[in-house]
Amino acid sequence: MRAIVLDGSGSLSLQLRPRPSVPGECLVRVTAAGICGTDLELLRGYAGFAGVPGHEFVGVVEEAPSEETAWIGRRVAGEITVGCGECAGCRAAGRGHCDVRTVLGIRERDGAFAEYLSLPSRNLHAIPDAIDDTTAVFVEPLAAACRVIEQVSVGPGIEAAVVGAGRLGLLIAQVVQAHGADVTVVVRSDAARSIVEGLGLDAIAVEEARASLARRMDLVIDATGQPDGFATATALVRPRGTIVMKSTIHGETPIAFSPLIVDEVTIVGSRCGPFDRAIQLLAEGRVAVKPLVSGVYPLERFADAFDRARRGLKAILKP
Questions:
Q1: For a surface tag, which of 74, 79, 91, 301 has the fewest beta carbons within 10 Å of its beta carbon?
Q2: b/e map 188-212, b = 16+ CB within 10 Å
Q3: What stretch of H or E contains 156?
Q4: How far is 45 from 252, CA to CA, in rounded Å?
Q5: pLDDT band, residue 8 (cuts 50/70/90)
Q6: Alpha carbon separation from 265 to 50, 208, 269, 280, 309 (Å, rounded)
Q7: Looking at residues 83-97, what average pLDDT do you find?
Q8: Crossing angle of helices 275-283 and 139-151, rounded to 10°
Q9: Contact at 8 Å (CB) between 1 and 49?
Q10: Distance (Å, rounded) from C-alpha 83 to C-alpha 112?
Q11: Which helix (H) or strand (E) holds 177?
């Protein structure tokens, strides 16, 4: 099969690789895969990953274990973390926190920027016909956005700010608004402002936010993917407010702990989320994703796709 491969130096190349063949898992033919901020961080050394990246995907199951053949022919998206189900991490917090986990396209498991991938059936979720492939690519990141709702109180009367108007930030803002909160998205450019306002959301520039929203927000979500995003989040959150961290950043982020301690701010790490809820929101049309797509590319044009992803929203690869 053809696959985009990341080497240890951070370089990508299109290669011929064997199809994955993992006992007890399903073989999925990838029909579309999205490039996200984590993929871009992998190129900078995040997680020390080498192999086939990519974890936002939709595809069709072509092979399955003998007892799970009902999956064959079904269009699916997949949860990205494969856990053992038996270790201390699994018992305490579920397979997503397995002590020996593999993660699709991120940790010791080849990912979705290829013609085929492999996952256990327990990780798969059927995609209804009402959701096209381009929309289905957003199931995984939208599930991550929905995780915020599981972790913190969101509803009418909550003043929320989303720092970062990229791929994930715009999904989070829509989810938080759909649950009744008053949402403001902190943006860095006029182009980002236009996209935010086109989605029916309020936008504010970083400098203006720091001046007019300082110490006012009940909830601040950092989805910038940049070290300075956390600094902006700490400037906006009110005393005894909550910061949710959605950024995966290679390297260290400087943090001034004293103001957080004095103001008794709660910091919540947030990762993967509920696929069933994300699929429902997409099927009902309650979250707009098509405006977030900046281009669709074949595997041969992976360099163009990654370049586009660096400059804006969602670039999608179609094997």
A1: 91
A2: beeebbebbeebebebbebeebeee
A3: none
A4: 12
A5: confident
A6: 37, 22, 13, 33, 33
A7: 94
A8: 110
A9: no
A10: 18
A11: helix 167-178
Mean pLDDT along residues 29-42: 95
Q: Report helix, strand or coil for 184.
A: strand
d(CA 26, CA 20): 10
For residue 134, which amino acid is it? T
Q: Tell me, what's the pLDDT at 312?
A: 78
In 3-state terms the chain splits into helix, strand, coil percentages (rounded to 5) of: 35, 30, 35
Contact 148, 101 (CB under 8 A): no
Residue with tokens 């956390």: 230
Q: List the structure tokens of 121.
A: 């059936």
Residue among 180, 190, 186 nearest 159 (CA): 180
pLDDT at 249 over 80: no
Sequence letter at residue 107: R
297, two tokens = 């590319």
Strand-pairing partners, residue 184, are 161, 202
The SS3 of residue 107 is strand
Q: Let me know how long the chain is.
A: 319
> Which amino acid is located at 99 in the chain?
D
Distance CA 206, CA 199 (A): 19
**pLDDT at position 300:** 97
In the chain the beta strands, taken as DSSP E runs, fall at: 2-6, 12-16, 26-35, 56-63, 75-78, 81-82, 102-103, 116-119, 124-126, 159-163, 182-187, 202-205, 217-222, 237-245, 266-269, 293-298, 314-318
| Structure token pair of residue 167 | 């791929």
Residue 300: name the closest of 11, 91, 12 by CA. Answer: 12
Indicate yes or no: pTM above 0.85.
yes
Q: What is the mean pLDDT of residues 101-124?
A: 97
Do 76 and 104 form a contact (C-beta atoms < 8 A)? Answer: no
Asked if 250 and 46 count as a contact pair (C-beta separation under 8 A), the reply is yes
Q: Does 247 have pLDDT greater than 90?
A: no
Q: How many CB atoms lie within 10 A of CB 57?
A: 31
What single-letter amino acid sits at 319?
Answer: P
